[in-house]
Structures are given as C-alpha cells and as structure tokens.
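FORM 12-B: Structure-to-Sequence Request
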C-alpha cells in the first residue's frame, strides 16, 4: 500500500485484496509446468511469474505464482491461481477477457460476475486508471503463456 490511497475503494473489496496480498494463495513454483511465463509492469515494478500444470484432458490441475510488487498486482495473481484451477484453457481465456472488459468499465451480467469470484473485488481499481495495469498484469502474463503454448511448434 504505497504511493496511493485506496480510501475510495469499498471496504469489503479492500479487505479481499489485502487478504490475498497478505496471505497469497498458491504461492511458489511448479517443477514441471506446462505453461510458464513472467510479466513485468515497469510503472510500479510489479513482477509476476506464473506456472500452470495441465492434466491429460487439458484442464488446469495446478497453478502457482511468485512475484513482488504492489498489493493489487499480487492480489490479482493470487486470485488468478485460485480461479483457473479445474478450467480448460479456453475457459481461462474467456474469464481473462471478461475481467479485461470489467476493468475497462463494462457492467457485467450477474451470472458473469458470479464466475469472477474474488476478482470482483478488483473492480474498484477502475477508478484508478494508472493501476489497471497492476490488476491486469497476471492475466496478461497468463494470456501470453497460453498463446505460446497453443502456437504450433515448428
Ligand atoms: Zn502495481
């Protein structure tokens, strides 16, 4: 919580973000990840490294992250690793797309919001345009690794 005051964020949302920041879920790395990627946000020095493991059906069987940086970037990574478990990569991409839309100001349907889990807590960050990159960092990193994974190998 440096540099910026988050007083304008709803208290409940703020609590969810801080909880993920202080008690990150799925922290660490995987020995043999199917997807591996690193993202960096020069604006506040946020870094996220993601490891994802898929089972034989292409479903996420494990996801872990390490990183450093502001509370929003790290909370977003923690929430991401929780949310993607048990999902196929196209479902993960859809979720990522929705979250991007949410951060850009689209009002989501209730059903869509339900699928967002704790990500919903990050929607208050929309009021701090410069911080949107922090919230999206982990997801951009994940999208990069998915396109790399899905790209035909030559
Ligand atoms: Zn940040």
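FORM 12-B RESPONSE
SEQUENCE OUT:
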């Amino acid at each position: 919580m440096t540099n910026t005051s988050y007083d304008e964020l709803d208290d409940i949302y703020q609590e969810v973000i801080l909880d993920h920041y202080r008690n990150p879920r799925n922290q660490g790395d995987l020995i043999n990840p199917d997807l591996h990627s690193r993202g960096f946000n020069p604006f506040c020095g946020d870094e996220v490294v993601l490891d994802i493991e898929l089972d034989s059906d292409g479903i996420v069987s494990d996801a872990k992250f390490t990183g450093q940086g502001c509370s929003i970037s790290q909370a977003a990574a923690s929430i991401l690793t929780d949310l993607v478990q048990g999902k196929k990569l196209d479902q993960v991409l859809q979720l990522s797309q929705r979250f991007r839309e949410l951060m850009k100001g689209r009002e989501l349907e209730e059903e869509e919001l339900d699928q967002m889990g704790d990500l919903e807590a990050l929607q208050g960050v929309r009021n701090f345009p410069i911080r949107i990159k922090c919230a999206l960092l982990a997801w951009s990193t994940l999208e990069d690794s998915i396109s790399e994974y899905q790209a035909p190998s030559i």
